[in-house]
Amino acid sequence: MIEDLNCNSVRSSLWDYAAGTLRDGERAGVTDHLQTCRDCDLRRAEVRSLRSGLAHLPEKALPSLLSTRLRVIASRERSRMLLRRDLSARLAELRRNAKLVFDNLLRPFAVPAMGGILASFFCIVMIVDTLHFHPEWQPDIPVSLFTGVTIDGLSPFSVNGPDVTLQLTVGPNGTVSDFELSGEGSATRTASPEEMKEIGNMVIFSTFTPATAFGQPVSGKIVVGSRHINIRG
Amino acid sequence: MAGNYYLNLNSNLTPEQEAVLEDQRLISSLQAGEESAYEKLIERFQAPVYNLAYRLLNDQADASDVAQEVFLKIFRNVGSFRRESSLRTWVYRIAVNESHNRRRWLFRHRRGEMGIDETFEDSDCREKPLMDAGETPFDFTVNREAQVLLEEALAGINPVFRTALVLREIEDMSYEEIAEILEVSIGTVKSRIVRGREALRRNLATRLDPAPSLQLVPGTAK
User: Fold this and answer.
1) Mean pLDDT of the B80-89 span
2) Domain shared by A207 and A167, yes or no
3) Residue A150 DSSP code
4) In which domain, by residue range, is A182 found?
5) What pLDDT, on a 0 to 100 scale, did the predictor assign at position B130?
6) pTM higher than 0.80, yes or no?
7) Phi, psi for A168 (deg, rounded to 5)
8) CA distance B38 to B131
9) A107-115 LR contacts (CB < 8 Å, sep 24+)
10) Are the beta carbons of B171 and B160 closer than 8 angstroms?
11) What are the structural domain ranges in chain B?
């Protein structure tokens, strides 16, 4: 059935008419109208020209680098997708990334640090030659041995009377804590009070270095003799 | 999915059905990570995507950037593509959305900037029209001028209407496809196309018949 159409409805359908997408009845109505209406026919020619112009607009040439860039993107995204699927590959990627981050953190320090080491080495080499060491050697104190009591200084008081030999017990603080007569006949001999007083003075006013065991002062014994020397003349 | 296989049991498929099957195969290959599928997708869509972006943005550099963004999104999201629309519609939807995003970004960031593209004379970047070998130089010039006028008129219309018009008249898409791409109703698509056509016609009329700046009035000599 041919539809009876006015100019407005025909003009609104002209694009679809030119595209060939109108229903049969509507198309026949438009064709009918165009045969009788010169203005609408002119508009149809205009629409056809426009459609043709739009459809034949030249394609823009692709920028020379676009294809390459797209392929780079494709390659990167593909490998990323494949990596995500495999757990071991994912772990390997994580390890690589961590190593990269570590390297990136350390590398800026590598050159200055090496420079610092070399500079300090150079300085030491230059300075060592100019230094003169004068070590003051002190007698070493043996710390891993037992040492005996030694006499630092004897009392200026002497014992008058017969010669005596004393065994002194020296405490850790260097003072004499006990003494006894020793030597020949000491078992039968008894010292007189006067003699004991002189022996006491001699012991009190003498100074000792205590015995040591592994560096620590301990009690020790020492035998001290007093001899009379007579000089004639 | 990697395990999807499409057996061509019916050899009497229409070209449209063949195209749909081809799309399905391509999507499956992309989801499986086949290198050839990536190449095929680029070969098939790089020119349409770039041209669409160019028509919507009128700038080669922006169109190139948008094309890269579009393909990046395609590659990243093809795994979750649900095949509810055709591959072509999906790609075009991404291209249109990216172009709109780009235009919004340009509107915010490039107001008042002057480009140097107009004076750029790199032959690689210039458009290369497809010439008819039988066309005379005169015809070519006339056609070229007409094309330039048409392109300028097209570039001058509202982007919303231009998008619908470009998809319909240049990309030759159906109303349904355009509605799917633009995510609007078919009625809205038709309305936008009609308004786009009207705007294009007005723009062209203005360019072809400008108001004369100097009028000669005939008179008798004294």
Assistant:
1) 87
2) yes
3) E
4) 146-226
5) 54
6) no
7) -100, 140
8) 31
9) none
10) no
11) 15-108, 133-210
Nearest by CB: A81 against B33, B125, B194 = B33
Is B46 in the A-facing interface, judged by CB distances under 8 Å? Answer: yes
Supply the CATH classification number for the domain B133-210: 1.10.10.10
- Domain end, chosen from A72, A91, A126, is at A126
Chain B partners of A9 at a C-beta cutoff of 8 Å?
Answer: none
CA distance B88 to chain A (A): 18
Q: Which pLDDT belongs to residue B12?
A: 72
Cβ–Cβ pairs < 8 A, chains A and B: 95
Instruction: Indicate whether A141 belongs to any domain.
Output: no
* ipTM surpasses cut 0.85: no
Radius of gyration of chain B (CA): 22
Min distance B27 CA to chain A CA atoms (Å):
14
CB B75 within 8 Å of CB A78: yes
A165 and A195 both lie in a single domain: yes
List the 37-66 stretch of A: residues with Cβ below 8 A of B. 46, 50-51, 53-66
Tokens of B147: 């094309």
B15-108: what fold?
A: Rna Polymerase Sigma Factor; Chain: A (1.10.1740)
Mean pLDDT of A35-60: 88
Q: Is B150 left (phi over 0), alpha (psi -120 to 50) or beta?
A: alpha
Beta-carbon count within 10 A of A62 CB: 22
> Quick one: tokens of A123?
């300085």
Contacts 24+ apart (CB under 8 A), B14-21: B20/B86
The CATH number assigned to the domain holding A153 equals 3.30.2420
